[in-house]
Write a structure and sequence with these properties.
single chain, alpha+beta, about 25% helix
Length: about 280
């Protein structure tokens, strides 16, 4: 019996050491996949020109001036890392997490991948959001660095990824303003509807700007679907941007939050004021 208990203690310690280590087979696979996509992209050779900016709706022209986009390189690969982000994992059960969120945005075509790391009751939890060139979009989940939990993907997941790509890239890598996949409908001087179209798939939302030119909000009723009374129901989704500061050559918001807009309430499920952006190509 003593030997059995000793073996269990040793195994438990080994598991805890493994959980505490930085290595994960799933994260390793994700890193290798990102290297593959990076290799497929060429270094940025062009810059955002005054002539291109002047073809945009007035509100986006002000935005470009406000953030300093003219002559900024048209980077093809951007990596935004959100450190210890506040994230609500399950609103019904009241599960809240601190999460590292590693976001990759590719500009040649609307590709978006994100890897998150957190823990549930001390057990490592990892997740991967993806929006691929095969028009697949969804999320994978992994537990204890060993167990695949789920892989949910469908047409709505892909649309959600498309819309997320638009909003996130507008902040992290705004040269996507000139993407062939985007069309604009000017509502007024402070509101512009943006539609992303990839073959037969579309996603639409509205950007709101303040008088200085900063994007303060994006809203779409096409991105989010939740089960309400057992029925898949489209709800509103809003992204808010605050506290713009100079970050290298661009001015970017320091605080970003994502909000689900239900018929009877709003839920801030993602909020970060601690992130960095790197441009690789």
């Amino acid at each position: 019996m003593t030997l059995v208990i000793g073996c269990l203690v040793v195994i438990s310690c080994m598991i805890l050491i493994y959980w505490k280590s930085s290595y994960s087979p799933f994260k390793s696979q994700f890193k290798n996949k990102m290297r593959h996509y990076i290799d497929e992209h060429q270094p940025a050779k062009e810059v955002c020109t005054k002539e291109e900016i002047e073809k945009l709706p007035i509100a986006f022209q002000r935005y470009c001036k406000y953030i300093g986009l003219e002559n900024f390189p048209k980077y093809q690969v951007a990596n935004a890392f959100f450190k210890q982000t506040d994230f609500i994992f399950d609103d019904q059960k009241g599960i809240k997490l601190k999460m590292d969120y590693n976001l990759w945005l590719f500009s040649k075509s609307p590709l978006r991948f994100a890897y998150c790391e957190s823990a549930l009751h001390g057990i490592p939890f990892e997740g991967e959001d993806y929006c691929t060139e095969q028009k697949e979009g969804g999320m994978r989940g992994f537990l204890a660095k060993a167990i695949p939990l789920f892989d949910t993907h469908d047409a709505q997941g892909y649309r959600a990824g498309m819309i997320s790509w638009v909003v996130e890239a507008m902040v992290a890598n705004p040269s996507i303003l000139f993407s062939k996949y985007l069309t604009y409908k000017e509502i007024d001087e402070q509101h512009v509807q943006v539609t992303i179209t990839i073959e037969d798939r579309q996603g639409t939302g509205i950007f709101t700007f303040n008088k200085e030119g900063a994007i303060t909000e994006f809203y779409s009723d096409e991105r989010q679907v939740e089960k309400i009374n057992g029925v898949d129901t489209a709800i509103g989704w809003r992204c808010e941007c605050e506290d713009y500061r100079k970050n290298g050559r661009l001015r970017q918001p320091r605080t970003i939050r994502a909000i689900k807009v239900y018929p009877d309430k709003e839920l801030v499920y993602f909020e970060s004021s601690d992130y960095s952006v790197k441009y690789l190509k």
